[in-house]
Amino acid sequence: MSHHLKVMASAGLVTTRREGNSIFYRRNFPSGESAASQLQMALYQTTDQLQIDESLHSRVDDIHHQRAEASRIFFTEHADEFQEKQDLIAGYSVYAAQVADMLAASPLTKRKRALEVGPGEGLFLEVLANTFLHVTALDNSESLLATAKQFCQTQQLGNIDFIHNDTRYCRTTSEPFDCVVINMVLHHASSPAQIFTDVGLAMKSNGVLLVCELCNHDQDWARQACGDIWLGFDPQDLGRWANDANFTEGQSIYFALRNGFQIQLRQFIKE
User: Fold this and answer.
1) Looking at residue 186, what DSSP letter applies?
2) pTM of the model
3) Are 53 and 180 within one domain?
4) Of 60, 75, 90, the domain-final residue
């Protein structure tokens, strides 16, 4: 396997990233519209259509479950330190105003129902509650959801439902959302691409998805200190996952932080 991976890396089909003694390989998505790029993308698309053995599906599901459980346990054990952990990378005050401004400028046809995935302590729920008639807060951490609920009660926000679940909830909800917001959640998610697919199923046509997330970085300490599963994301990854879930790209804002991290704020419109 290592020999074949080396051949593919030499051919430019995969890129590599080293973490300690481990080397991670991923597809190298080409840029441009050359014949070679089109051939490479056709190869990837054809590969994605191959039938995978059920035992492999089961193993992938096991890995996703292990990641989700590890994330849930981390936030359960550190619920009282949530803001302290968040401030190590990007505290709420760093990105809140930009997300609120992009929300206000988004081309929403209606402002009836909104969903926030992973609301943390619930601070941005106040913005949503003052913008939409009804808001749903969705989190797989029961302790953090309780903290968010307590904050909203203190602020006398009565138009919010609190759901203890992951984004599989979106596959069963009956009334679609006009807007979904995901702030600093994807790098904790077991399968970020699946989140795009799930929320897309629960959104109205022309609905707006706002994603605030870290760009890819190499600060590995964030895994242990902050419970991160992913070291940020290449902006192309978010665009590709959104496209696969039938979103088109809207506005994008990027800004760097003094601690070396970079944030991407992305707007996607449901087709």
Assistant:
1) G
2) 0.90
3) no
4) 75
